[in-house]
Amino acid sequence: MTAHNTPTDLTQCTAEQLLHLYRSGQASPVDATKALLARIEKLNPKLNAFTLVDEKVAMNCAKASEAKWQAHRKAALHGGAEVGALEGVPASIKDLILTRGWPTLRGSRTVDPNQAWEVDAPVTARLRESGAVLFAKTTTPEFGCKGETNSPATGITRNPWNTDKTPGGSSGGTAAAVAAGLGPIGVGTDGAGSVRIPAAFCGNFGLKPSFGRVPAYPLSPFGSVAHLGPHTMSVRDAALMMNVMKQPDARDWTSLPPDATDYCVGLEDGIRGLRIAYSPTLGYAKNIHPDVAAAVEAAVKVLQSLGAHVEQVDPGFEDPLEITTGLWFLGALSVWNGLSSEQQALADPDFKAEAVLGQKLSAMDVQQLNSKRGILGSHMRQFMQKYDLLVTPSVSVPAFDARPAGQQAMTPEAMLGWTPFSYPFNLTQQPASTIPCGLTKDGLPIGLQFVGRMFDDAMVLRASRAYESVCPIPRPQI
Question: Would residue 386 show up in a list of annotated catalytic residues for this protein?
């Protein structure tokens, strides 16, 4: 759907479509924000996607943006007054990301909300500067610790396609909100799939950029596997967000050098002639849902019809689950050890179980895990010299039943065994996206994953857009 084929319901408009309406004077940020807040009041009790919705702040921001657009239109004959890249577009922020004026509770009862909240994380600051209307914080499992969104602090977040199902995690609130028309764009984090899993389960577009492309502060306790990325209703919206989110911030010493790329340029160039490796299992994934396997295979045929040269080939590495969960459990332990005994008593039992598993790791274990990670990263850099992109399923299964925290024993397999396509590319730090490629027989979304060469985020967006151009992203009826 293009900006000029715009829904009459403002809550179903992409960011690009809203900007078109604002520019032409057919709608205003105040109109869009009022419609959004009304829809949140109606649907959020069913979904539980937000930890906080600030109507006053949202409306004040929307009114300021409306004034800027009015000035822009009046001055259009003389070149136009400046407006931000996302001026007036509603945007939500995951509750792991610092946001000035609002508590960042990290999905946890262990964090005291009654303290000064005076700092914006880099991505929050950049969105403010772009004119986005920040209206809410989205739910997350405690400290982003798992691939489903539930916690003792916030309860269960639910999937707009079927409220009996989980939206995934840990950016489940963000994904549920975007899918349900509760804000067209949102910011999530991805430490083992936490942007891509919920985007796949909820039928959105999600991007995990190259590590360091989007600055972070403070750095995640889970280290250099943790990325920040956009959740959107369209690929073009993600490109708009990347242009804003990529801006440098000196507080992140791991961030990449300034990036002059305009991610909207070349987005429509297609994939004719590109070399794509297609790996339906990565050589080790088992128990892939038959609907997922069939939908991804059909999507690969679409890529071929668009002119890509597709070769079915596995990258040639063993399942790195042990590396991912080992490093993850160590991060959980570091957070756990910083909590008082009173705080530990309030924690999610799943998070406690991860910390307990982290206690079993020795310094030599950690060194060996990092060495294995380095070998995997080198292997994939070399493999990607032969291909422009790698394509896989996003997740092995569709969304499973929503449930409270602490419902099953925490093991590496229980934590991530059902998402074997996501976590390897946190270890390698490559850019990776998920885009819907169909529905199961039960009507749940299925995701197709594009993995790019390190630093080639633009190619991942371009390929995702090529697929979207012939297979538009479906919307749930809720």
Answer: no
